[in-house]
Design brief:
Blueprint lengths: L1 H28 L9 E2 L3 E13 L2 E4 L9 H7 L5 E4 L2 E15 L2 E22 L6 E25 L2 E23 L5 E22 L4 E20 L9 E20 L2 E2 L4
Antiparallel strand pairs: 1-12, 2-5, 2-11, 3-4, 3-11, 5-6, 6-7, 7-8, 8-9, 9-10, 10-11
């Protein structure tokens, strides 16, 4: 009986050892689970808001290709009309943006579109009253009512949370100008004109963006926006000088600095 019990115990122990050895071998043969794909905070869609300040250079030059019945050169020389209206539009703006980023190692590139309401505008008054000659008062306004861009962005991560980038692409916006030339005395002449149109152009700039959390980033950016040139022709509505007209050219070129915040939805990195 004792021999039988000892024999059964040995068999049981042997079976246990064999089973454990087999299980260990099976576990050793199983491949480890795949590593999860790296999550990239800079990748994927993002939306945000921005605001800033813009300014333009002096604009509103007379166009010598648009003479009047007196001759544009003679009118300027006599002091009746100014050759430069010296309008310097400036002011604030604000709006929103949407974009998409890709990342490979430390390189980040993507697309961004934005649109802003604008208070970039100014008025100018030029007084001409030379001695012994009929003078004039010229008042002008130059407004950028709204604008937007659609740009490529490409940059490098100076650190995991700091992106330095350059940007460039399409710009569009609505500009408007008004010109009124009133003779002194007022009965001597009156010339008025205006223009308003939506224009296409280009923009380029650079910026820096800081990832504050896994989903929120702050950025600062400089942009140059060029919407081309517009021409405003002033005519005499009173008919004092039939057929007389003057034309002024306005440059719709603006420097802009702005700050913004983006909310990132996250994505997968293109490469490790």
């Amino acid at each position: 009986m004792k021999k039988l019990i000892v024999t059964a115990s040995c068999i049981a122990v042997g079976l246990c050892v064999a089973m454990r050895t087999g299980l260990a071998a099976d576990m050793a043969l199983k491949a480890p689970p795949p590593a999860p794909a790296p999550v990239c905070n800079w990748c994927g869609w993002y939306v945000g808001a921005n605001g800033g300040y813009g300014w333009g250079n002096s604009t509103g030059n007379i166009d010598p290709n648009f003479p009047n019945v007196f001759g544009a050169a003679a009118a300027v020389a006599s002091g009746f009309i100014p050759s430069n209206l010296a309008v310097r539009p400036q002011g604030g703006f604000g709006g929103g943006q949407i974009g998409y980023n890709w990342q490979s190692a430390q390189w980040v590139w993507g697309l961004e579109a934005d649109i802003q309401g604008s208070a970039i505008k100014n008025n100018s008054t030029v007084l001409f009253a030379p001695a012994g000659v009929v003078g004039s008062t010229t008042t002008t306004s130059d407004n950028l009512n709204w604008f937007g861009t659609a740009r490529l962005r490409a940059g490098v991560l100076a650190s995991p949370n700091l992106l330095l980038y350059g940007t460039g692409g399409l710009a569009y916006g609505h500009v408007g100008e008004n010109v009124a030339i009133v003779g002194n005395p007022a009965a001597s002449a009156l010339f008025v004109g205006s223009g308003s149109q939506t224009r296409l152009g280009w923009s380029a700039g650079a910026g820096a963006e800081w990832m504050v959390t896994n989903n929120i980033s702050l950025k600062a950016e400089y942009l140059f926006v060029d919407l081309g040139r517009t021409s405003v022709t002033t005519t005499d509505p009173l008919g004092v000088f039939p057929g007389a007209f003057f034309a002024y050219n306005f440059k719709s070129e603006f420097n802009m600095v702005r700050a913004g915040v983006d909310w990132h939805f996250g994505g997968l990195a293109v490469a490790k």
